[in-house]
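Structure ticket #2291
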Amino acid sequence: MKKLLPLIFVSLIATVGCNSGGSDKKKEVEIAEVHHIKPKDVATYIENFKMQNQALNLEFKGADYNISLIDFDMDKNIILAKFDLGVVYIGFDFDTEEPINSLTVLEATNINDLENSVTASYSATDLSINEQGDNFIYAGDLIDAQSNGLFNVNLTFNESLISGGNSELTVEDNIALLNGTLGSKTYIQINKLINQNPSIKTIKFISIDGSVNDAINMHTGRSIRNAQLTTYMPSDGEAYSGGVDLFVSGYKRKYEIGGKLGVHAWCCEAGKPADQLGKDHPGHGAQLTYFRELLGNDLGPEFYFFTINAASFDDEHIMTKAELDKYKLITD
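Resolution: structure written out below.
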């Protein structure tokens, strides 16, 4: 079984170029490119993601359902997914990256209002849990909380449930609207937009809480920049963490007063958050490469180090208009 969170929360250690002295003249030193996923490997990575994502399945009451991410809680060790009839709470230990023998299925008429819309509840803590290739498989019987009846369940999931994120990209009035948590699905959505809707040149950020897969998120940003798309933060929009990384990728960047761009440090490398690592630590390599591409060799690193020192990994700093101007995040 591959690690469920291989590139989401852990930075890849890589070598970064350094200066050398010995001359009165400054020597131009090539800056090493660092990537969590090498550009030449992105297509293969996405194909593997698609294969894993197709394996996600909930077999319940004799029917098969696709499942997709709603959210996860690393403190409570729960992954929350949705399916056609409601939601699934999957027990998972994020510290050990191992499944927990706990599964709950809620049937609901409105998954956005579970408190008032649940029509049935089923749960179990004595399921069999097996590992087959990339997949974890939970199997057994769930108990109906009302009737005590037993209902057979078989759940298959893997790392793609989380690393895919849950973003939605829709088109309205010739503008693409981006919403949700960024991940591998976002990369697929953005590239589909570019290839199938070349007339659409603007991505409007609605509400983006961050990225669950920074490794692919940076390549999503490169796709946006290469296609010369405009990123647009409206007055009632918001983007945090990896959402800001994606906003910066716009060939042009439009911002309206009131829009929220929130930054913070990432966590962790060798048990330390990004703001506690030295500036020359190789853990910064991929992000520095990315921001150099977007903002230049000088401003890119300046902005990156600003973001990780603006707030701790468990907090958020909303950038001021002065800060947006200082780092040239607004072009329109």
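Closing remark: The longest strand covers residues 98-108.
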